[in-house]
Amino acid sequence: MSQIHTQLLTDDASGLLVQRSFRLRIASGPDQGKEHTLDEGTTMVGTHPDNDFVLADATVSRHHLEIRVRRDGIEVRDLDTTNGTKHGGMRIGQVVLSGGARLRVGKHTELDIEPIDTSVDLGAWTGDRFGDVIGTTEPMRRLFSLLNRAAPTEATILLQGETGTGKEAIAEAVHRHSRRNKGPFVVVDCGSIPHELIASELFGHAKGSFTGAGADKQGLIEAANHGTLFLDEIGELALDLQPQLLRVLDRRQVRRVGETHSVDVDIRVVAATHRDLRAMVREGKFREDLYYRLAVVATFVPPLRERKGDIPALANWFADRMGRGGWTQSPTLLEQLQQHDWPGNVRELRNVVERALSLGTAGASAYLSELADSQPRMPAVTADDAARPSMSGITPTSPDVLELPFKDAKAALVENFERDYLTALLARHRGNISRAASEAGIDRNYIHRLVKKYGLEVDRG
């Protein structure tokens, strides 16, 4: 007996994890109303009796279609038929569909591919960590429950959240909990590789394919074969390279720069970004088809300010991992840790613990007090603010920011700019988000998200 093939994914509308299966249903033609559930493996469609789904339409070929359920959609291949297969009015050879669709096969038959979704009960997470990622607060328990369900599958995962929230550690934990845990875990930081080198780094190159290519080089995608490829900061990937990555995800093949043949790769992809990829799709800065290939299971990693109950355990864990004494969480020190807003998130906490350890127990509290005094506070937005020109653009960069890794420092500065810009923008328009969005040239929903992200108090009076 064949097994029904299912996909694990997050529903766009609800954000819930669902198990999706598919069925074929004839919408019009001689076989109208006929149905077939897509099973594991390949489903053959045509008029010959040995097909899995047999049609009576004489304009359909004996072996017309080959349909396969993949981890990221439905692959449909026309078998070089006389009357062809059309999708969206266009004749197709091979296409990967991310959801439901209608196909015309032959001259008279319309065939619907219909998704059937069933909610997945994640259950309650009872542990205090997932891999090396610590968390006992409710947002982290929900995240761990979802990851625990998704990790053993082959589903592509998109981790969204601010810089420093631990997305790489989460991706590695997913790899360890998967069936690929004996294979490599390869990290690609799309934001740190120069544009002129990223094609070579991702796909590899052949000797002599460009100046300086003195030998054949295996790309990072190839290096992840039989393992997990982690695409960090995928939102930074240049638009002209996105089609090449899409082809890799569609075909599971990679072609080195300067070569004409492709190499098969068996990879599981986890991607991460601090950007709003949906907004980038609307702005034409990120391909919609690539977004849907990556966001099969999409989830958010909460910032540290939304899970402050995890701070004591995280601080102790960092201190233990550093193997150094001098860390004692006195009530005063714990209160200071809880009051800080942690713009750099978990990575900032790790840096604070390391600095505090180097200063000793007595110096830890003093250092955190200094950190709290230098931390900018976000004022409420009032109409009077519009009349005052902002001088934040010429404020010297905080020494604490300059001590962070480049990527974290850049993210902290960008977030400071977003807060200052949004404060002045909303003040000029007296809290009217629609007019503010029109002036700034950005989507009003994006402004709503930023207002929520930075906890702005919008004074409409």
Please provide a written account of the structure:
This protein is α+β, with helices and mostly antiparallel strands and 461 residues long. The protein has helices at 138-150, 167-176, 195-203, 220-223, 242-251, 277-282, 288-294, 311-322, 331-339, 345-374, 399-402, 406-428, 433-440, 444-454; strands at 7-10, 17-28, 35-37, 42-46, 53-54, 65-70, 73-78, 85-87, 90-91, 94-97, 101-105, 109-119, 129-130, 133-134, 157-160, 185-189, 204-205, 217-218, 227-232, 253-254, 263-264, 267-273, 297-300. The protein is built from 14 helices and 23 strands. A hairpin with a 2-residue loop joins strand 6 (65-70) and strand 7. The N and C termini lie far apart (68 Å).
Detail the topology: elements first, then pairings:
Blueprint: E1 7-10, E2 17-28, E3 35-37, E4 42-46, E5 53-54, E6 65-70, E7 73-78, E8 85-87, E9 90-91, E10 94-97, E11 101-105, E12 109-119, E13 129-130, E14 133-134, H1 138-150, E15 157-160, H2 167-176, E16 185-189, H3 195-203, E17 204-205, E18 217-218, H4 220-223, E19 227-232, H5 242-251, E20 253-254, E21 263-264, E22 267-273, H6 277-282, H7 288-294, E23 297-300, H8 311-322, H9 331-339, H10 345-374, H11 399-402, H12 406-428, H13 433-440, H14 444-454
Helix pairs in contact: 8-10, 9-10
